[in-house]
Design brief:
alpha/beta, Rossmann fold, 13 helices, monoacylglycerol lipase activity, AB_hydrolase_fold
Amino acid sequence: MNDKREPYDSTYVPFPEGRLRVITAGDHGPPVLLLSGAGMDNAMLSWRHLIPALAAEHRVLALDWPKQGGSRQWEGVADHQTMLRCITGVLDHFGLESVNLVGMSQGGGMTLAYAIEHPDRVRNIVPIAPGGIISFPPGVHQLLWLIAKMPRLTTGVSTMMFRKREAVVSLIRKTLVPGPVDDFEEIVDEVHQLVHEGGAGASDWQNGSIGFWRMRLDLRPRLAEISCPTLFIQGDKDVGVAPKHTVAAAAEVPGARLEMFEGNGHWVNRQSPERVNALIIDFLAADRAGFDKAAG
């Protein structure tokens, strides 16, 4: 089992339900908060390659969501409002008036939601294959609602399945990283270890987002309220968040830019890290220039 020691400091931010681990890197430049996905994910799995790339010119924070990674001990349901409160709590803890947000999947949905709810605290956002903007056909929707109503059962079954390394390999290759990647075996090791440490299943945010007839969480009607510079990143082979949903979402956000990665799946940040890193660093260049000018 992989037991890779991380080269970064961690701070634990207290909340009434538990404490959140925040990985920190970089000691100067505009702050960037990285928000990972749901399920079998955490801050280091999502952002292993982006953290060092950003840290050269940014103050980087990478949050482990409640019940994930170093924040696994958490009492109560980590629903949408709780997650918004987690972001605010982290910003307040570090004394940050505003921040750049980069989010993957669930984290991408939270990136959009936070820009809607707290526009004064957001500088720029980069939602990558974001949740919160999708819907499902009738029948499929009701099946997913039923699955969400039985989290213990589905988590138990998923955990049993993905304790087998070959099942993790198949999942990643078919749905998350469908193309070649240099560190594929390391990704498999990381996910496999997460299953053994915390199980496999959907997050409270995912389970709570779907009602019987329609999505309880649907950010699409409010996307036009986002006023900060926005860069959407999406893999065209993504089966978790269909590219059409991200294309439609980008069209609703005023002035938003969309970058579609050919041959990439849901984890474009791990499949094409050098391209994603360069794109994000370039996108944040104007903010760095303004931040440095104000600081100097």
